[in-house]
Automatic annotation (TrEMBL):
PANTHER family: BOLA TRANSCRIPTION REGULATOR (PTHR46229), BOLA-LIKE PROTEIN 1 (PTHR46229:SF2). InterPro entries: BolA, BolA-like_sf, BolA/IbaG_stress_morph_reg. This is BOLA1 protein. GO terms for cellular component: mitochondrion. Pfam families: BolA. Coiled coil: none annotated. Residues 105-133 are annotated as: Disordered. It comes from Sylvietta virens (Green crombec).
Length: 133
């Protein structure tokens, strides 16, 4: 079971701008980066591993945030953009990936505001815990 730490520390940012791949990350981070690059040809891609903030064992790679800037998003509503990201990562979301924060922007949107919002706070728990009503 995972529980969240309230520490303000953020996960490592594994960024890739254009075709350059910066930061190695773990195997799941590399897979996420490779699949999003292949599916969406991003002009900017950031993969953030938030797993340490969620109380899992070291190297768990269960919680990620991605910022994807792609021309493929032009003219698409936010929901459709997220669906493209989720489709590219379908196998990972069905398996080891417990949570994914997605920021999906067009190159024009990124150019006008090249900042990523902060990671959302951890609300605790995991899929395996029962929620109290």
């Amino acid at each position: 079971a995972f529980s969240c730490s309230l520490s303000p520390m953020r996960g490592p940012l594994l960024a890739a701008a254009g075709g350059a791949m910066g930061g190695a990350g773990g195997p799941l981070a590399r897979t996420i980066r490779a699949k999003l690059t292949a599916a969406l040809q991003p002009t900017h891609l950031e993969v953030r591993d938030d797993s340490p903030r969620h109380g899992g064992p070291p190297g768990a790679e269960t919680h990620f945030g991605v910022l994807v800037v792609s021309g493929r998003f032009a003219g698409l509503p936010l929901l459709q953009r997220h669906r493209l990201v989720h489709e590219a990562l379908r196998a990972e979301l069905a398996g080891p990936l417990h949570a994914l924060q997605v920021i999906a922007r067009t190159p024009q949107q990124w150019q006008s505001d090249p900042r990523a919002p902060p990671a959302p706070p951890c609300l605790g728990g995991s899929k395996r815990e029962r929620r109290r009503g």
